Amino acid sequence: MAAWECQRLQSLIAARRPGHSLAAPFYTAADVFAADLDLIFGRHWIQVGVEPDVPEPGDAYTVDIGPWSVLIVRDDDMGIRAFHNVCRHRGARLVDSEKATVGNLVCRYHQWTYGLDGRLLFAEHMGKDFDRACHGLKPVHLRSLAGLLFICLADEPPADFDAVARVMTPYLAPHDLANCKIACQSDLIEKGNWKLTMENNRECYHCAGNHPELTIPLFAYGFGFSPEEADETDLLQAARYDRMVCDLGARWEAGGLPSRVVEHLDDMVTGFRTQRLPIDGSGQSQTLDTRVASRRLLGRLTDPQLGGLSFWTQPNSWHHFMSDHIVTFSVIPLDADNTLVRTKWLVHRDAVEGVDYDLDNLTGVWQATNRQDADLVELAHAGVRSPAYEPGPYSPFTEGLVDQFCNWYVSRLAAGLTP
Ligand code: 3BY
Ligand code: FES
Ligand code: FE
């Protein structure tokens, strides 16, 4: 990055008003987008998939992030590894589909052949002095957090992932994501900057006006409300919600399921937050009728009424773990104006479609909600492009997590710019 580019970014960062949305260039400028890829997506733990993307030895899954392409493979010992998806001969993309099942990894161009451990096994016509050992695939850091796959493209990944894993494993492990199957995946391209996608996810201010399918009763109260403006009904609802959080939380905790909120969204390099939230009084799952979508509960769970355990990570993911299914969301920036939102619905791997679950019922709430959110992100992106746009104030009651996302983002960008 040229010195003047670095200075421009630093002055944008210095001008940021806390408690306000970001200045327009953060959402629209090509140089900020390049910095986002380099300093944010290139240096932090990025959630890209789940263990069930590669259930069997030889299964491969590729994810493109900006100029990078990452290849995730299940090896013969059931380990999972990640490599740069770049042949060590002349650089051809090794696997050029999103999913593949292979014995070895064979480059289509000149058939250089790599093992699932990345070692170069075979390369014809290279002469007797050629050292195969120096031409293995380049590894990418990969961690599975209770079945959620995170990669880090940096040489030195943030060390605090271990701390995140220590806290989160007891929350996530009972849902046994590693032994699920992907029942459905949706790839939605939102016409907006990736940070608008993330900001939209971090609040439910917009839920009442935009998400009829998500009126899982009282859901929005989990994201706060303004006590000053609340009428009696609001206050009663909120009190009822608080009681539910207390009562159900105590029941879940007593049953060995951690449920209490943990919040480190802007005070860790690998920022995260978790909480198990009730789904109405007797609601079981995030479906239209709030009943479980799959008859086969996950792992060894026996109680269908476990609410939704949400797990939010900076910079690019959020997830909901229920008793019967899991929904994961991974956000991948495509350019300054376009963002991929990849959603996966997971059920127990032995659950049978049409017998144990109905796909439309399983995916209904979030398919509809995702479309509505995509529309809102597009609306926001169109607005921030206008010269008349100026950063506006976040609600102190309902947009605290949005502000924390921006705090995290701006401070990590600043850290990346500091030599
Ligand atoms: O996925 C979610 O949980 C967030 C929370 C509220 C808005 N959005 C739908
Ligand atoms: Fe892969 Fe030549 S570029 S074998
Ligand atoms: Fe939404």
UniProtKB/TrEMBL annotation:
The keyword Protein transport does not apply. Its cofactor is Fe cation. The keyword Iron-sulfur applies. Pfam families: Rieske (PF00355), Ring_hydroxyl_A (PF00848). GO terms for molecular function: 2 iron, 2 sulfur cluster binding; iron ion binding; oxidoreductase activity. It comes from the Bacteria. Keywords: 2Fe-2S, Iron, Iron-sulfur, Metal-binding, Oxidoreductase. Residues 45-151 form the Rieske domain. This is (Fe-S)-binding protein. It comes from Zavarzinia compransoris.
